[in-house]
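Q: What changes when nicotinamide-adenine-dinucleotide is included in the input?
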Amino acid sequence: MSQMPYADLCLYIDGEFIRGGGRREQDIVNPANGEVIGKLPHATREDLDRALASAQRAFLTWRRSSPLERARILRRVGELSRERANELGRGITLEMGKTLAEGVGEVSWCAEHVDWHAEECRRIYGRVIQPRLPNVRQMVLREPVGVCAAFTPWNFPYNQAIRKIGAAIGAGCSVIIKGAEDAPSSVIGIARMFHEAGLPPGVLNVVWGVPAEVSEYLIDSPIVRKISFTGSVPVGKHLAALAGARMKRVTMELGGHAPVIVCDDADVDRAADMVQALKYRNAGQVCVSPTRMYVQKKVYDRFVARFIERTRELKVGDGMAPDTVMGPLAHARRVPAMDRFVEDACRRGGRVEVGGERMAGPGNFFAPTVLTGVPDDSLAMTEEPFGPIASCVPFDDIDDVLPRANSLEFGLSAYAFTGSTKRALALQDGLEAGMVNINHFGQGLSETPFGGIKDSGIGSEGGLETFDGYLTTKFVTQMD
Ligand code: NAD
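A: The predicted holo structure follows.
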């Protein structure tokens, strides 16, 4: 492995990169081998207060900035992201384990999100409403909501942060972001790029700390007007409740447990290959990961055999190795979490077709796993695995499978394969999910809305909807 340093870890407050000063530090650990690769400074109370004060001050001028100026800065960050994709992607791989191709790809591909916000912020429109009296003018104005607090996770650290920052800054808000402490380097990289692109001090602040302490402090502050969180359902509900008690807006991108419905008239081999490739991406630590495979009885054996065959072929290893297809889990705590799903499945009569156990050696490696025969009420079929575990079960017909697919409180992503337009329509209408993919995977583009329903969240990121959570609506009526 190259001896290039991992990253310069720091806070970014009021336009200054800050480290040292006796602040508490957290070890950053490479999940492929357990080595400590960096020390992340935590923000003190004074740091958080300074971030709040600078965001409040910066908002007063940034809210009046021209969308052309915002677009210029956002576009520059897109360019810089592509130029630095190798360096930023390498940092992501070292700190959270995904393959280098996935780490670099995350940055170069998701740089499009910042381009999208640069383009769309020029199209934030209001409207004029026909008056009832001839000398009255009625208008609807969209205004930036104010100082935002954003909390992002470790599974796509660049992607999640750039989407929230792009939306806040493009709308004319200032933002304080706390990324995931386990995977901080690309969020600091984003701050550097905005700094170099000429973003005024205070419009973006990056802080680190104990997640619950930082989020509660920021949400409680009267300066913060909007909360955006990506992470688990329980934490999302907790933060939404704190925000609700203070009547603050929220965008919540929470967990999922995506059903995949494979009908007997589908191209079954193609479906098996596509689902298998998506399932083990990022070691299954993806909110839209396909997790519950419902396969129609006639094609069940064929689908499962192919899915298993492909899964056996997966090369698991250090994400920095060029032939690795699946890296380690991001944390040691995720390994026992996987054991729990497998043990429960076995206790309830399920079969481990492949994998099902941790792998020998250092690092947080868990073998890619396929379970069959698991009952619908097993943990694997009801709780989000957030790891490399896939469960396959048979179904009879659409009327039988739709209620099973919709039976959980999750409603993020759903997948289906069918050769029939009629069935496609029934699935499209019947699946309770924020995003439905039929015969292909096409979600998460900058121009398409990404978000869940039910417990999977509130609001959308991307698409035309992307600024909705960052703008307020003001009605103005005026008489001559
Ligand atoms: P976790 O719940 O401890 O942490 C998940 C994320 O939420 C982390 O980034 C963490 O920093 C943050 N977090 C936790 N408590 C917080 C709080 N009080 N305030 C602000 N942020 C807080 O779980 P974990 O073991 O790190 O990850 C596993 C679980 O997290 C999974 O089951 C999955 O549901 C969820 N997760 C979801 C996503 C997603 O994209 N929706 C991403 C990462 C993790």
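Observations recorded in class: Residues 151, 153-155, 180, 211-212, 215, 230-232, 235, 239, 253-255, 287, 333, 384, 386 surround nicotinamide-adenine-dinucleotide (CB under 6 Å).
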